[in-house]
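DATA SHEET
Item: assembly model
Revision: 1
Owner: S.N.
Input lines:
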Amino acid sequence: MKKYISFFKIRFISGLQYRAAAWAGIATQFAWGGMTLLMFWAFYQNGENSFPMTFSELSSYIWMQQAFLAMFMAWFFDGEIFDSITSGNIAYELCRPCDLYSMWFTKNMAIRLSKVMLRCLPILLVAAFLPYPFNITLPPDFLSGVLFLISIVLGFLVLISFSMLIYISAFYTLSPMGIRMLATSVIEFFAGAVIPLPFFPEALQPVMYALPFASMQNTPFMIYVGHISDSEIVKSMVLQVIWLAVLVIAGRLLMKHALKKVVVQGG
Amino acid sequence: MKLYFKYVSMILKCQMQYKASFIMTTIGQFLVSFTTFIGVYFMFSRFNTVDGFTFSEVLLCFSVVLMAFSLTECFVRGFDVFPRLIKSGDLDRILVRPRNEIFQVLTSNIDFSRFGRLFQAVLMLCYAIPTSGIAWNLSKVITLIIMLIGGIAVFSALFVLYAGISFFTIEGLEFMNIFTDGIREFGKYPLSIYGEGVLRFLTYVVPIALFQYYPFLYLIGRSNNIGLMFLPFIGFLFLIPCYIFFKFGVRKYKSTGS
């Protein structure tokens, strides 16, 4: 366990070095969130009846999404891992006395968390002081705040365990670009990054919520904005745990299979 | 020009070497923008109109922006990955050759997998042309073409500007994404829906609205002012400062030495 903690630390600290990039990122995300809200605002001018969420809930959702983007962005992958597979450096990694799956898992966690550390507070602070209804509000009560914290950790782990599958697929395809793009667009869409899940047609929603993608950012953010009933909170958090278990087990099995017949690329 | 086509065919052959990967990437490109389209579709199935624009009209606007963007991204890709040229020191090689550096950067990279996106834009256009209820005549067709050309000009200018900035920062600037990827993403709706302030910014500072919004008004018949169709040409002026800035960067350029 100790060695993984130090892997985590190394990655985390090196991630914290890019402060100028973080400021540029904050500005970008702020503009992005603002434009998204203005777009929804235009739609909301149409009439009261058709909103699945109130505009204030939506604002909170969008700002949370921007603040924690680095935790949930599906298009971000650690290039080093792919390179190590395609260039053959994986041989060194395999010589190390540690479990490859856990090592990659912790590395990914560390990179993403260091980015979030730098970015989330300024975004949340500014978003809190925007005029109503464009601002972010606190969760409806203390309990949902706590549940949100648990759920965001779970969602984060679900996303990483899913992206682990993509890393492992590189053992089989060697050219991960195509699969990466495919997986990215599927995850982004079904996780509610393109438009929030409540905006999907009613008929599709039961399916959407059952997929692992809804367990990523959707569940914690819905708990935060309070757009979910108590019984649904329990249900979707249990689902998060189940998906996490399934994805981790699948990832480990797949990795074991891949490593059994891994061909180290020379060069 | 002959040399350019030679480069194009060389790069095309080169990318065709990895056919499976190329096809996967092209499909991926298609899917990425396809999910955006489904997003728009779901929004409209709930709300019907936005700011008075119908689904078909928005698709028309979306497809022009997406088409201009993907064509630019395909052929002006060299400027998009320009920071890499600086970092690796490959720019030094370009600068010592007896050819225009713009030409060489343009031919350093052409990304044909962007045709996946282009394909989607064409599909949307095919759907939108008959269903948008526009009485098509010669001037409307020309407007559409001018919009497209104007869009390519403005996006190219943005890519050149982005490359120019990276002379000073070495790293690519994430902030510029809001103008390139951001415009592609938010340009799918006519810009007026974002409110007066944003529209003014995107008219006078970054002239996106000149090709996306004003001629579009004429196209869908919201305005009868035929002069609007020529506004994209003013967008061409935006190329000038961006080009000058890039030239300025070249003159100040110090090799990274790697």
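QC remark: Residues 186 and 194 of chain B are 9 Å apart (CA to CA).
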